[in-house]
């Protein structure tokens, strides 16, 4: 599987001669499995036509800030929400100055302001312009804001001069964009993720289950792997492809999922319980298909093991993250679940009425003991990366806190020993 498979890349093209390279960039991004959409400035259209990018990307090119064809005429919000990464290539000196100043007077600058995904710029300009202190200060400002600067390269320029200012070649930009997703936030960590539904057999034909598609859990496993973790994914029955660099264990029932999790959990630093595990199963599973002989049928149900609570109760429990899929009182129910099961964090979301289950998009309210964060409605892959970033931050803070507590305890013990020694010394 390619490193950009399924990723949403929003490409911004500004008015420089290097715009011709951006056409090849679109082609190579798509070859790597990315879905690409293009936003062009008015100046960019003087160098390359929108039709070129439409043909290469397979999508209409976005040009206008006030596009009445967009839903609610809010095209910049839709595009910003859609993007996993926003790449500006080429990024002219003028455009860099405009986004530094916070301009939003055309579609691309407005998208830059509205985008909460990773943003990267590939500068392309004359070497003197690149070396100008104003440009240098603008680049420094963007870096401080977390924008990734890709390039520029040195070599022959369109003006006939030679020096720094060339836009990186498309293949280099593809590699750089791929690296944006490999954050290393969980490097060296071992993560176990559960995903999908479980099926609780009634007879050899029928079962009790739920509407979980497994998409969110698989997205979380993918994001954890991209963050550098060694990931085990325990999945109920779903029709999804195993994420790259992830070891997958397929199960069917809640009991099987419980056994698989407990078999691997001792080796894990983080447990993320995304699966929609059935709370109950039939007390007796018929060995033969039940026949329709009566007007009604009663099933006696018995409780399934609570996998998340069992993991959180372990003596040396990993960092435990639960999910709370709720139809009402979302926050209060999630907080009670976090308290009752002694979790480190919980991600709450609304389900039902075309929300949550079996949908491409989702929104989460992430809660922990001393804080919370709202993650707005967006694609589940992007949402998973945001969640993993929060988990990594909270885990780091927890580790630092534990280390500090241990150090303080050692200092107190040493101080106590020193006092006892001084008291026992003859005078």
Oligomeric state, counting identical vs distinct chains: single chain
Query: Which segments are poorly predicted (pLDDT under 50) over 5 or more consecutive residues?
Result: none
Helix content class: 25-40%
Number of domains: 2
How many runs of DSSP E, i.e. beta strands? 19
Radius of gyration: 27 Å
First and last CA, distance: 76 Å
Which structural class do the helices and strands define?
alpha/beta
* Residue fraction in strands: 15-25%
In the CATH scheme, the class of the largest domain would be Alpha Beta
Number of helices: 13
CATH architecture group name of the largest domain: 3-Layer(aba) Sandwich
Main pleated sheet: 8 strands, mixed
Strand order, largest beta sheet: 12-11-8-13-16-17-18-19
Q: In CATH terms, what is the fold-level topology of the largest domain?
A: Rossmann fold
CATH superfamily (homologous) name of the largest domain: CoaB-like
Mean pLDDT: 89
**Mass-distribution shape:** elongated
Task: Please explain how this structure is put together.
With 427 residues, this protein is of the alpha/beta class. It has 2 domains: 8-181, Flavin prenyltransferase-like (Rossmann fold, 3-Layer(aba) Sandwich); 190-285 and 299-405, Rossmann fold, CATH 3.40.50. 37% of the residues lie in helices and 23% in strands. It has 13 helices and 19 strands. An 8-stranded mixed beta sheet has the order 12-11-8-13-16-17-18-19, with helices on both faces. A 5-stranded parallel beta sheet has the order 2-1-3-4-5, sandwiched between helices. It has a two-stranded antiparallel ribbon with strand order 6-7. Helix 4 (93-100) packs across helix 7 and helix 9 packs across helix 13. The longest helix is centred in the last third of the chain and has 45 residues, at 380-424. The chain is elongated. The relative contact order is 0.09.
